[in-house]
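Hi everyone,

Forwarding the result from last night's run.
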Amino acid sequence: MSGHSHARTIKHQKDITDQKRGQIFSKMARVISIAVKDGGPNPETNTKLKVAIEQAKGFNLPKENIERAIKQATGGEEGTNLTEVVFEAFGPGGIAIIVEGITDNKNRTLGEIKQILNQNQGKLAGEGSVKWLFEKRGAITVKPDEQPKIKNKDDLELTAIEAGAEDVYWYDNTLDVYTNPKDLDAVKKKLEEKEIKIDATSLDLMPKEEISVDKKTKEACQKLFEILDENDAVQEIYSNLKL
């Protein structure tokens, strides 16, 4: 059940270039700004901001960057002209795609996303034609080699399930733990009580079913994801492509 979130796939990569890291930091600052705009600067009372900060920490966004983003958004310097956008699309092989973004110009971003799709065997879809294929899930990333007490993969899985996980999935040497969205914080706390070190938490869209495609089509899909991700407005890309 993992690998559908392009940002999470990038996070699993061991070597991220400085340019890519800078782009990720900029995008995470926008996520924090939007969260502050929507619910205020206190993560204890603003769940969206709390999740955004946890996600930013997962990408190693420095503490001072997080504090600066909150301060700027609180002072009205950032986030006032930003708006969240969601685009539904079909990609190579008919895979379903949802692109989430933050932009200061929705029409410009719409044109850019449409052009990228058209040039890479994809096309925009009507509102609601793709979203029903996905469901919201809480996601927690855990690395077994960073755990002080549990090294065995089976024990780590069992601990996650006992903490309330609905599903677990290994991606290389990283465990992705999936929960009901409303249980994300509770499961995280239970894991931390078991002295499990959390690498990252987020809210993801998960496909209800996956689509298998041939190697050539899968490569075309990955190319499309990478080009979409290069767009400054794009925050997250979800698909039902079976990895």
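Residues 215 and 221 are 10 Å apart (CA to CA).

Cheers,
N.
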